[in-house]
């Protein structure tokens, strides 16, 4: 272990020096206690009872009190106490119910002095009187406390706590006759040793057993208690009724509590299970420990400050068979690692922000004088110890509320109720869900469903009914035949006009040069065929009205006359009568310049299609030879995008609708996380049917079993009122048929309805018809049954 810096504390004529150190024990320790001069420590347990000397660099074993070939159960210790007035006097609480005193001044190997066997069960605690040499107090699992005079061979007083067991007893540091006792039932009692017949005061301190208590060494009326409810409470006992003045919330059951010497508001605690650390708390700031000792690897069973006037050294024993001396300077300070601000979003979008008041106060720019108020002489101010600064810090909480209408979750509920996830062909599911998203004003989601239909649908079914009602106007024209652009000029996207080739006619646009894209109609397959080059797509966002006509203007520097494009983009199957002719100057230039020159773009006419974005394509949008797996990577990224944005509903819905097309592309843990998140949201909004449908459609084994739990129904026989077995309709005890209809008196082998008040029932239809005319039970028991 790394050697820590030494510290020296002045204690009258003596001084304590040392460092953080430890030693290995022969067995786990149950309790430890230190002698008056802080030079020796005794360690006791079921299989260990030794005294160690505290040197500057290490622990040195001095005496083994567990002697003999076959040590008796008197050496199996649950607690140990070293007398603070008599340095040679020890007392132990044995697991067999014995209270044993030990005299270290005996010349023999066996140091046992007296043995008291009046308790019937394990003794949990022993305590010497702080000023009376011969007075010893014990508390046992049998519910009794006994006061012993070590000059006599038996107890002088017995106190009955009227409880199952006594967990701790402690003499008051200031009141000579008073001691406190904590009990298994959560009560704390104050007794006067002169009145063993009845306690003076009793109050309920914790919701559960109170494992420990400790009187404050300086403040006469403060009593600290710790219990199984993970609380440490400080009580003011000077008032007529005990008053809780401080409460510290820990993370585990509190097994030991000890006030820190010379520090009024500091106390140390350790836990009975789970947590292995030792915490020092400032009761004024109960939500974060002042200091933490993290050396032990198992539960800490005993803690004690090395000297009653020294706050810098703490001794501890543990079930990991180690004995530690902790130097307070080496403790971990959790407050240094704590986040000084807090930020959290509420369910409906509200934002809560907490920070220290000094950070958000109006006069944060002021820098106070570090030495204090300049109106007083500077020598009156004592320089604070930075290791002991843990002042009470107050924080301010700010809540920023959002507009309820802007953050309503109605769209989530309606989407969950209206979405179709199964039961229809894939294309119809996508169309329906796109329509639902469009009606709820979610255009991006609607477009996503439409694109999924285009990517994964069978090419022969691209023109399925219901995709768009405007397609009927175009006859058998393929869906993907929009228009062809041979070359796009630099002005596209920024200019509102497109240049048209001078020598171009409508007929020439249909049949392009070899190597360029061409568009033709196939009447048999109704598919779009194109060149074998890579398809190019250009998406232009535009809002179109149903009757708008997009025109491309010809901008000629020589002539300012504008030209309106034809109304049809594709060659029709029948003769077009009203075919507008081009202007004369274009007809004249046709023979001279038939091809595109410069930056001019050769384009065809555009016809708007309702509810579709403007798409410019140089080749067919869909290649029938392209496998569906080609789109899987981008779909996977799309699902991750929606999940990261918080729309796990979309991710799960697409995952279910696509099924095996995409499921193998996403790992099982991610799918399970999405499913669990979506199901949790559905259940929060009480959409139980939708939640169950999602569970049924899931292929994750961890999800499909969710609706299989807690499905067992335990019923009782309507005759003998005893539980029924699962082997049939005959009761094993009364040997009568339990599920007989109270109306027709036949066995109910299907749906059975019964009254929870009288247990009679029968066929659903029979009971419904009966209760229409009568409010009483058909079995004649007189109970007024009601069908709801």
TrEMBL record:
<keyword id="KW-0458">Lysosome</keyword>
<feature type="compositionally biased region" description="Basic and acidic residues">
    <location>
        <begin position="496"/>
        <end position="511"/>
    </location>
</feature>
<comment type="function">
    <text>Catalytic component of the GATOR2 complex, a multiprotein complex that acts as an activator of the amino acid-sensing branch of the mTORC1 signaling pathway. The GATOR2 complex indirectly activates mTORC1 through the inhibition of the GATOR1 subcomplex. GATOR2 probably acts as an E3 ubiquitin-protein ligase toward GATOR1. In the presence of abundant amino acids, the GATOR2 complex mediates ubiquitination of the NPRL2 core component of the GATOR1 complex, leading to GATOR1 inactivation. In the absence of amino acids, GATOR2 is inhibited, activating the GATOR1 complex.</text>
</comment>
<dbReference type="InterPro" id="IPR036322">
    <property type="entry name" value="WD40_repeat_dom_sf"/>
</dbReference>
<dbReference type="GO" id="GO:0034198">
    <property type="term" value="P:cellular response to amino acid starvation"/>
</dbReference>
<dbReference type="GO" id="GO:0061700">
    <property type="term" value="C:GATOR2 complex"/>
</dbReference>
<feature type="region of interest" description="Disordered">
    <location>
        <begin position="488"/>
        <end position="533"/>
    </location>
</feature>
<dbReference type="InterPro" id="IPR037590">
    <property type="entry name" value="WDR24"/>
</dbReference>
<dbReference type="GO" id="GO:0016239">
    <property type="term" value="P:positive regulation of macroautophagy"/>
</dbReference>
<keyword id="KW-0072">Autophagy</keyword>
<feature type="repeat" description="WD">
    <location>
        <begin position="203"/>
        <end position="245"/>
    </location>
</feature>
<dbReference type="GO" id="GO:1904263">
    <property type="term" value="P:positive regulation of TORC1 signaling"/>
</dbReference>
<comment type="similarity">
    <text>Belongs to the WD repeat WDR24 family.</text>
</comment>
<comment type="pathway">
    <text>Protein modification; protein ubiquitination.</text>
</comment>
<keyword id="KW-0862">Zinc</keyword>
<keyword id="KW-0472">Membrane</keyword>
<keyword id="KW-0863">Zinc-finger</keyword>
<dbReference type="GO" id="GO:0005829">
    <property type="term" value="C:cytosol"/>
</dbReference>
<keyword id="KW-0479">Metal-binding</keyword>
<keyword id="KW-0833">Ubl conjugation pathway</keyword>
<feature type="repeat" description="WD">
    <location>
        <begin position="116"/>
        <end position="158"/>
    </location>
</feature>
<dbReference type="InterPro" id="IPR015943">
    <property type="entry name" value="WD40/YVTN_repeat-like_dom_sf"/>
</dbReference>
<keyword id="KW-0853">WD repeat</keyword>
<dbReference type="InterPro" id="IPR001680">
    <property type="entry name" value="WD40_rpt"/>
</dbReference>
<dbReference type="GO" id="GO:0006914">
    <property type="term" value="P:autophagy"/>
</dbReference>
<keyword id="KW-0808">Transferase</keyword>
<dbReference type="InterPro" id="IPR019775">
    <property type="entry name" value="WD40_repeat_CS"/>
</dbReference>
<dbReference type="GO" id="GO:0008270">
    <property type="term" value="F:zinc ion binding"/>
</dbReference>
<dbReference type="GO" id="GO:0061630">
    <property type="term" value="F:ubiquitin protein ligase activity"/>
</dbReference>
<dbReference type="GO" id="GO:0005765">
    <property type="term" value="C:lysosomal membrane"/>
</dbReference>
<dbReference type="Pfam" id="PF00400">
    <property type="entry name" value="WD40"/>
</dbReference>
<protein>
    <recommendedName>
        <fullName>GATOR2 complex protein WDR24</fullName>
        <ecNumber>2.3.2.27</ecNumber>
    </recommendedName>
</protein>
<keyword id="KW-0677">Repeat</keyword>
